[in-house]
Amino acid sequence: MIVLEWLFLTIAPCDAAEPWQLGFQDAATPMMQGIMDLHHDIFFFLILILVFVSRILVRALWHFHYKKNPIPQRIVHGTTIEILRTIFPSIILMFIAIPSFALLYSMDEVVVDPAITIKAIGHQWYRTYEYSDYNSSDEQSLTFDSYTIPEDDLELGQSRLLEVDNRVVVPAKTHLRIIVTPADVPHSWAVPSSGVKCDAVPGRLNQISISVQREGVYYGQCSEICGTNHAFMPIVVEAVPRKDYGSRVSNQLIPQTGEA
Amino acid sequence: MNFSAMLSQIELKTAPADFRFPTTNQTRHCFTRYIEFHRCVAAKGEESNECERFAKYYRSLCPGEWIERWEEQRENGSFPGPL
């Protein structure tokens, strides 16, 4: 029963960090999928090298013994082995570098025009999100603050220090542009499931383009130490079907424009 | 304004990717769009509808706080850009 409970509680959130988690969170964007694939590719070589080097090391320690081998061989030069141990590592490095650079540059590239722009503005210690694509004047029509929910107000099933009062609603399977910037000190906007960790630097606008592939709620946290409440400004992205996005946005727009 | 009218207004459209600003750093993208809008207004006059798209672009890209500050600076004549 305890095991079941533990399994259920740890697996339930899926797109949030879980206790004692060692692996990745499930990928929600092609970018995160690419990062995970690269990680596994590199781990293949990593383990290969680990086994090989450990074997040499253990073998050397085993044989370099005053009783077993009183007069060790002293080879200081060997052309064949030197050529081999130069070329072989270079080939391994190439096999690591090529997919790594391919991923790095493809993550940076904006292939198609984004459909919406969301501004994620970090404050000490909350986040403000601006949806300004639908504005017809400089007045901000859809801007909201996103605060963490205090521990005492949590409802059953909500994650401590991860839940916020106002989530960022984005359409799924749509190209998004997220502009990350702070209003005071450096912050960071990081959502592991979407493969995003973007620093927010004062006076600078950083752009990330993502496309969330499945509907869901994705959790992230501030990843740049930004003061006392650094741990209490999480990020919650809610990806909704594209057809529902319009009504979600207009629902939030109406109370503000309706008064005017 | 009723609900359905509002819903039909929501069109998934934003400032396009600009080949002048291909990197992660989009600070100049926002600033340039802001300047482009005001130059456009200066050239074509307030009534012209052609400038509206630049306004949409800079509103999409720039944080509201920045726009407010620039508006203030333009009023005071201390705006740090070619207008």
From TrEMBL, chain A:
<dbReference type="InterPro" id="IPR011759">
    <property type="entry name" value="Cyt_c_oxidase_su2_TM_dom"/>
</dbReference>
<feature type="signal peptide">
    <location>
        <begin position="1"/>
        <end position="16"/>
    </location>
</feature>
<keyword id="KW-1278">Translocase</keyword>
<feature type="domain" description="Cytochrome oxidase subunit II transmembrane region profile">
    <location>
        <begin position="16"/>
        <end position="111"/>
    </location>
</feature>
<dbReference type="GO" id="GO:0005743">
    <property type="term" value="C:mitochondrial inner membrane"/>
</dbReference>
<dbReference type="GO" id="GO:0016491">
    <property type="term" value="F:oxidoreductase activity"/>
</dbReference>
<keyword id="KW-0186">Copper</keyword>
<keyword id="KW-0479">Metal-binding</keyword>
<feature type="transmembrane region" description="Helical">
    <location>
        <begin position="83"/>
        <end position="105"/>
    </location>
</feature>
<dbReference type="InterPro" id="IPR001505">
    <property type="entry name" value="Copper_CuA"/>
</dbReference>
<dbReference type="GO" id="GO:1902494">
    <property type="term" value="C:catalytic complex"/>
</dbReference>
<keyword id="KW-0472">Membrane</keyword>
<keyword id="KW-0732">Signal</keyword>
<dbReference type="InterPro" id="IPR002429">
    <property type="entry name" value="CcO_II-like_C"/>
</dbReference>
<dbReference type="Pfam" id="PF00116">
    <property type="entry name" value="COX2"/>
</dbReference>
<dbReference type="InterPro" id="IPR045187">
    <property type="entry name" value="CcO_II"/>
</dbReference>
<dbReference type="InterPro" id="IPR036257">
    <property type="entry name" value="Cyt_c_oxidase_su2_TM_sf"/>
</dbReference>
<protein>
    <recommendedName>
        <fullName>Cytochrome c oxidase subunit 2</fullName>
    </recommendedName>
</protein>
<keyword id="KW-0999">Mitochondrion inner membrane</keyword>
<feature type="transmembrane region" description="Helical">
    <location>
        <begin position="42"/>
        <end position="62"/>
    </location>
</feature>
<dbReference type="InterPro" id="IPR008972">
    <property type="entry name" value="Cupredoxin"/>
</dbReference>
<dbReference type="GO" id="GO:0042773">
    <property type="term" value="P:ATP synthesis coupled electron transport"/>
</dbReference>
TrEMBL record, chain B:
<feature type="disulfide bond">
    <location>
        <begin position="30"/>
        <end position="62"/>
    </location>
</feature>
<dbReference type="GO" id="GO:0005739">
    <property type="term" value="C:mitochondrion"/>
</dbReference>
<dbReference type="InterPro" id="IPR036549">
    <property type="entry name" value="CX6/COA6-like_sf"/>
</dbReference>
<comment type="function">
    <text>Component of the cytochrome c oxidase, the last enzyme in the mitochondrial electron transport chain which drives oxidative phosphorylation.</text>
</comment>
<dbReference type="GO" id="GO:0045277">
    <property type="term" value="C:respiratory chain complex IV"/>
</dbReference>
<feature type="disulfide bond">
    <location>
        <begin position="40"/>
        <end position="51"/>
    </location>
</feature>
<keyword id="KW-0496">Mitochondrion</keyword>
<dbReference type="InterPro" id="IPR003213">
    <property type="entry name" value="Cyt_c_oxidase_su6B"/>
</dbReference>
<dbReference type="InterPro" id="IPR048280">
    <property type="entry name" value="COX6B-like"/>
</dbReference>
<comment type="similarity">
    <text>Belongs to the cytochrome c oxidase subunit 6B.</text>
</comment>
<keyword id="KW-1015">Disulfide bond</keyword>
<protein>
    <recommendedName>
        <fullName>Cytochrome c oxidase subunit</fullName>
    </recommendedName>
</protein>
<dbReference type="Pfam" id="PF02297">
    <property type="entry name" value="COX6B"/>
</dbReference>
